[in-house]
Design goal:
The structure is a single chain. The strands form 4 sheets. A 5-stranded mixed beta sheet has the order 10-11-12-13-14, with helices on one face. It has a 3-stranded mixed beta sheet with strand order 1-8-9. The protein starts with a strand and ends in an 8-residue tail after the last strand. The protein is 41% helix and 18% strand. The protein has 15 helices and 14 strands. It is of the alpha+beta class.
Amino acid sequence: MAILVSNEAARRIFLVRQGLSSAPNRALSKDGLLQLITALGFVQVDSIATVERAHHQIIFSRNQTYKREHLSALLEKDRTLFEHWTHDASILPTAFYPYWKHRFRRREPIMQDRWRKWHGDGFDAAFEQTYRHIAENGAVMSRDMKAEDHQSGGWWKWHPSKTALEYMWHTGKLAISSRVNFQKVYDLSERVISKEHFEREVSHEAFIDWACREALSRLGFATSGELSAFFDLVTPHEAREWVATHRSELIEVSLVSANGGEKERASYAFARFSDEMEAEASVTPPQRIRVLSPFDPLLRNRARTERLFGFFYRIEVFVPEPKRQYGYYVFPLLEGDRLVGRIDMKADRKNGSLDVRRLWLEKGVRPSAGRLEKLDAELNRLAKFTGVETVRYLDGWMADM
């Protein structure tokens, strides 16, 4: 028989697992940062810097004592973090690397066929030449390998060596050694990943078990589909089989959705964590307003976000401007255990201001003086973090409220 979990309890359990229930001003050391990213499982990387790059903002929203130099040191000096792919480019604990080898092996035949079709006959030669160049000469950036007569453009106009670099990164032959102005620096994986993790092998069964267990630990409760989607490592079929095989360790839970209805699909949690989850359900998150990155892992599964928080969200970067409901890059707002609105803003670094273009609050959320004061305080904290001096509210920012 499934255990009924209230919507408030489900939200609070998930917020604890996502690192959003701890005090955001507690001191965060470099080791603490590694622990935070390990607890999250991954932090997505994205090139858009409308206010701050996604990985920095994801961490800052959880701890506002975060120092960027600590992340750089963990990635480029200590090598306890590495960059690779989940559902998108992400920063991951290097201890996860042996499991990502299974991803490399799975994706290589698919990518090889697809990229040959995209880029033609020069693919194999570019692969060999690029790999040999890096092996003999050391780490490179894409621009170091570019032919003088190549015309730049979109991904379909990548020069062959750029194609080879990305292909070899996706399939594990290369790793990201560092970044320069956010441009990747590629090197042989064995020169970037520590020997301990680079050489370690795990069986296929251990890989499936690890991926599902780690996903469920971070989600608290999940359907088999949510387990599959978390790291994007295992197939939905493999996740369903894992659940069926390990039912003796799991309890079935029925979640009350934000609209008051019970979830139709079965969700599962570890039986041994039932007392821990009961305690997590009683944790009251900080009541300050926090600005989340559009790529925050809390929002990664849009359907789950809507069921738990009653908050529909999509990134409209690729939506034609006339068809956008909100804006190009709009940030969700978390207050306590609720997603209460979204805000359109941009850091104007030339003029030293964080420009607020528009605020939308969810239905039933009032723009009270206290709430707007909390928002202003958070925006000023974010402005300082991103390197601008003031928050500027543009004309019409509170229109229709």
